[in-house]
Every structure is written in structure tokens, then in C-alpha cells.
Specification:
With 319 residues, the chain is α/β, with parallel strands linked by helices. Helices cover 35% and strands 10% of the residues. The chain has 10 helices and 8 strands. The strands form 2 sheets. Strands 1, 2, 3, 6, 7 and 8 form a 6-stranded parallel β-sheet that branches. Strands 4-5 form a two-stranded parallel ribbon.
């Protein structure tokens, strides 16, 4: 039986004193005093302890109840729509099923990935593994309240599907956009919580960055992400291992638009159309700065890729 500290608080109140050591009689506890009890058969005066014992017992039960209520209180209350916004310097999400070992017969939450931890990769995947004239358009650093809807409109216009690597902080501030991306049939993946360079921070920070974003995506969509991309593509051995432990595949890219440098929409679209090849993974951004050039370029190169016979697909499981 589990030991409850609240039981110890009232141990003396519940345990009678030894028969050989009766409590000393007070001034009003002598035989014949008002309110005193009758003598016992052996001739000793019984102390007036019954009422005190009842009062002590009631107080004990009150302490036990308060202790157990406090122990059962939740540690925190989720924020907007079940997507909790947690301070960046908070402890890692130790309660996440991905960050704690299973104990006994404890069951996984309903959203637990069926595959569990993945094989630890030595490097990120740079291209699609499935055959055919397929290209994966990917967008990092969102969601952004203006630029992400603009990208979604263009994709919807051409019936194209893509993958969005979201920043946890941005997803927390824009939960409706997270749902809108998924509702349009696009894939949502993990791009860390606050965009640090993973190979320059401690392992605990890497786990927190990826783990918190996993948890947020699962709370928002009901399933954890299956893919992750390190900010700046800076994977290293510890981050690759943690990525696998969290049930995700590490991703890179084969066509870099370098749109974050704002080189002009003409340059961006040229890089995509010139570099296009079967199985290409295109890196672009819908957040992290002014991405109007990215949006303009997408409107130009997407229909041309389709005319060339390419199909735009979200990321798929590597073979």
C-alpha cells in the first residue's frame, strides 16, 4: 500500500496511548468533577478524552482531505484551444509520452504513434524515395497570418499539396492556420520551437525544442508529426538521435530557393524551374520575414512544373 504523508500527520491522534500510561488527570478530570466520566471497574478514574479524541479525528480527516486535493491538482492549464503556450525557458515536457519511459501497464495516449522510435539516421533525407515525376514543395518558419494564407490559396488553385515545417511558437500564436493547413490536405511537420541552431545548443534544449513542437502539433491535430527539419539544416548526431526517439524522420532538401535573402521573385522561380528533377524537395519559406517574393515566385513556377508533368506531393515515408 502506498504511504501517504497525510496519514502521518494524525498518527498520534488515531493511536490510543498505552494502557499502562493513562493521561494525567487535569483539574476538571478528577472523579466526581462536572463532566468527568465514571470510574472504571479497576478503580482508576477514566480521563475525559472521548470528546478530545473525536475533535482530533475530525481535524485529521480535514488535513487528509486538503492534502489529497492538493496532490491531485493539475500542474498547469492549457492555453488557447488546447494548444498550450509555454515559456521558452520552461522545463522539457517531461509528461510527454515521447519523453518518458513506459512503466508497468501504463497505456499510451490515443494519439501515440504506432511506429514508436525510428531508426537513427546518420544524415537527413534530401530527396523523395518514391518513384515517378514527383516534387515536394516545403515551406519553413510559418505559419504567418498573411503569407501562409497566400501560399495556401495558390496551392489550392492548382490542386497541389505541400509540407509545412512549422515553428512551435508561430503555430501556438496561429492555431487556426495550423488547422487550415491540415484541412487543405497538406502535411504539417516539425521545425523546432524557436528556431535555434540545434548543433550549437545542449541536448536538453534540442529535446525541448523538438518535443514541445511535437506535443503542440499533436494537441492541435490529434496526431504527432512524422518529419522534422533542423533550422538551417544543421543536424548533428545528438539531434538525429533525438529526432528518431521522438518518432520523426530528419529531412533536408535538394533545391534551395534561398528566398530568405530576398533575391527577387524572378531569381527564386528560376532556381526552382532550373533545378527541378524527379524526387526533388524544394525549400522555401512562408514565415521568418517578408516572403512576398516567395509568394509571387510560387504563383509563377507551380503551374509550369505541372505543365512539365510533375505532381506536387507532401513528404512520404522513406523506403
Amino acid at each position: 500500500m502506498q504511504y501517504d504523508k497525510s496519514d502521518a500527520l494524525c498518527h498520534s491522534a488515531r493511536t490510543p496511548q498505552h494502557p499502562a500510561d493513562p493521561p494525567p488527570a487535569g483539574p476538571d478530570e478528577s472523579p466526581g468533577a462536572v463532566g468527568s466520566q465514571a470510574p472504571t471497574p479497576d478503580g482508576r478514574a477514566a480521563p475525559r478524552a472521548t470528546r478530545r479524541m473525536l475533535l482530533r479525528g475530525a481535524a485529521c480527516l480535514g488535513l487528509v482531505g486538503v492534502h489529497r486535493l492538493l496532490a491531485a491538482a493539475p500542474a498547469h492549464t492549457p492555453g488557447f484551444g488546447g494548444v498550450a503556450a509555454v515559456a521558452d525557458d520552461a522545463r522539457p515536457a517531461a509528461e510527454s509520452y515521447r519523453l518518458r519511459p513506459l512503466a508497468g501497464t501504463e497505456r499510451l495516449p490515443s494519439g501515440a504513434p504506432p511506429h514508436g522510435p525510428r531508426t537513427v539516421r546518420t544524415e537527413a533525407h534530401l530527396t523523395l524515395s518514391e518513384p515517378g515525376s514527383k516534387i515536394a514543395l516545403t515551406f519553413d518558419d510559418g505559419p504567418h497570418p498573411r503569407q501562409t494564407p497566400a501560399v495556401l490559396r495558390i496551392l489550392r488553385r492548382h490542386g497541389a499539396r505541400a509540407t509545412f515545417f512549422v515553428i512551435g511558437e508561430n503555430a501556438g500564436w496561429n492555431p487556426d492556420l495550423v488547422k487550415a493547413i491540415a484541412d487543405d490536405g497538406h502535411l504539417i511537420a516539425n521545425h523546432s520551437w524557436s528556431h535555434p541552431q540545434l548543433n550549437r545548443v545542449p541536448e536538453a534544449r534540442v529535446r525541448r525544442e523538438l518535443g514541445r513542437t511535437c506535443d503542440l502539433i499533436e494537441r492541435a491535430l490529434g496526431a504527432p508529426p512524422r518529419f522534422a527539419r533542423a533550422p538551417y539544416g544543421a543536424w548533428h548526431a545528438p539531434s538525429l538521435r533525438i529526432c528518431a526517439e521522438l518518432g520523426m524522420e530528419p529531412m533536408g532538401w535538394s533545391i534551395d530557393t534561398l528566398d530568405w535573402r530576398e533575391p527577387g521573385s524572378r531569381t527564386i522561380r528560376s532556381r526552382v524551374l532550373t533545378g527541378a528533377h524527379p524526387g526533388a524537395i524544394v525549400l522555401a519559406h512562408d514565415g521568418g520575414g517578408d516572403r512576398s517574393q516567395t509568394v509571387d515566385a510560387l504563383a509563377h513556377y507551380l503551374p509550369r512544373l505541372i505543365d512539365q508533368g510533375y505532381t506536387m506531393v507532401p513528404l512520404s515515408e522513406p523506403t
